[in-house]
Structure formats: C-alpha cells, structure tokens
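Entry 12.
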Amino acid sequence: MIVIHTAGGEFLLLERCKPAGFWQSVTGSLEWGESADHAARRELIEETGIMQGFLRNLQWTQVFEILPAFGKKYAPGITRNLEHAFALKLPERVPVTLSIAEHVQYRWASGEEAVATASSSTDRAVIQQLRR
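Predicted 3D structure (tokens):
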C-alpha cells in the first residue's frame, strides 16, 4: 500500500472498479523476485502516473484477511495477505492519471475525510499514522 499525501494534509484516495464504492490508496502485489520497494514504485506509476516525490518505506507490515470480492486475485486457499506500507509526501496536489482497468475515480481528501472514506482498515491505520 502506498499512501499519497500532501504537505497541506490532503490524501489521495482511489475508487476501485470492483467492488464499486471501495476507496483506497494505491495497492498492488509483488511480482516474482521483486522487492517491496520496487513493487511500490511500479504500482504507484501504474495506478496514478505519479513519478515525482520521495517514496518512503514505513517499515510497517500488516496481515489482513482478504475480502471475498478480491479472492479471485489470489491462489486458491489463500485467505490472508501481508501488506507493506509506504508513504509518498508531495508539496502539493499533482495531476493523477488513473489506470482505468483498476479505478473509476480519485479524490483528494482531508485527513479526517480520508479516514472516514477509506474502505480498508489497514489503509485507515496508515492514514491515521501519517496525520500525526
């Protein structure tokens, strides 16, 4: 997971195509032999087109139960996932180019709104940490 936020306290949220109404930060999976740091940068560019900024590995991992709506993305019998948390702090909002295969819209939200809107508990936890 990569939580993108501005120096002014705004957070970028993306609405997934499926399930509709599922808002989150940038997410993705490791490719075979890929490091978490490399995967984070690749997913950031693929999902938002954002290439600038210092991508910080928060050195925070979380295990979560995979929601049934996402089960088809994983091998049969896999019910939990290990998530690595990253943050990208930008001086201000930047243009976003969504991956239309994954997301239908985006929005910049205040920290409070981002916590209230994010569908994932792990996303909310990282946003809360970055708001401090």
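Annotation: Residues 2-131 form a domain with the Nucleoside Triphosphate Pyrophosphohydrolase fold (CATH 3.90.79.10). The mean pLDDT is 90.
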